[in-house]
Amino acid sequence: MAVRIDSPEALEVVCFPRHAVGTEECRSRVESLAEAGVRSIIPRGRSLVGRVRVLGKGHASVVFLAETVYGLKAVKVRRTDSKRPSLEEEARLLSLASRHRLAPRPYAWSKDFIVMDYLEGTLLEDLDAQALDRGDAQVLLARLLGKAFVLDRIGIDHGELSRPHRHVILVRLEPFFIDFESASTARRPNNLTSLASALLVKPSSLSAGLRRAAGVEAGVEEIVGALRRYKKNPGPQTLRSLLLLLRRGWEHR
């Protein structure tokens, strides 16, 4: 059941932590959200704030599903005790990335919130790679690396793709990057090398499962060598060399 954005239950979410409820800052937030077209919260998600289910709750923000003038969207609100002064830079980078289908599109934002597309899919950490058939696993792996390459090319370093489990969401076999809190255009982008290392080099249940499902035969040292060449000279040719290495033997299976 929808929770009106100006209701006491919604205030606990919008003005989290609870001690901020009733302050001028809290009232201003609710007014700004209403002016941006946010009408109500739809309780959904694995986290709980007060009595309301939300999509996510972190050290700097809370994300909830909402009914808005744009339709059903995700809303990210800055925690009132967050050390981050504003979400505006994150919204700007989301806007740039979304033009290339790399991230959810933002519709409205301020220093305290972002209204953006709600991507209904599976977090990478919840992926059961062994449940994928070989062809789907290969497509997914190629798309993940391809999108990380595009993110490199447009000059955004996500900053968290070495730990991609909660920063990539899969809509069927289409990956999108989420949570651009640590993203920057001031650093040299390392998205492809970070993501490829997490998916193919560093030991984990995710990397083991994805390698096995996709039928990757290349050894770790070979992959590391390809990533070093890409890091030294990032571009289409070194990306192609990496993908050819990963695809070695696929046609024979």
| Rg computed from alpha carbons, rounded to a whole number of angstroms | 20 Å
What is the total domain count? 2
Counting H and I runs of at least 4 residues, what is the number of helices? Answer: 8
**Terminal CA distance:** 50 Å
Structural shape: elongated
Helical residue percent? Answer: 25-40%
Q: How many strands?
A: 12
Question: Characteristics of this structure?
Answer:
253 residues, alpha+beta, Phosphorylase Kinase, domain 1, 7-stranded antiparallel β-sheet, 3-stranded antiparallel β-sheet, 8 helices, 12 strands, 38% helix, elongated
Brief sketch in words of this structure:
The chain has about 250 residues and is α+β, with helices and mostly antiparallel strands.
Describe the fold and architecture.
The protein is about 40% helix and about 20% strand. It is an alpha+beta fold and about 250 residues long. The protein has 2 domains: about 5-115, Phosphorylase Kinase, domain 1 (2-Layer Sandwich); about 120-250. The longest helix has 20 residues, at about 135-155.
Secondary-structure map with pairings?
Layout: E1 3-4, H1 8-14, H2 24-35, E2 38-42, E3 47-49, E4 52-54, E5 56-57, E6 61-68, E7 71-78, H3 88-98, E8 106-109, E9 113-117, E10 122-123, H4 134-153, E11 168-171, E12 174-177, H5 191-201, H6 205-214, H7 220-232, H8 236-247
Antiparallel strand pairs: 1-2, 2-6, 3-4, 5-6, 6-7, 7-9, 8-9, 10-11, 11-12
Helix pairs in contact: 4-5, 5-6, 5-7, 7-8
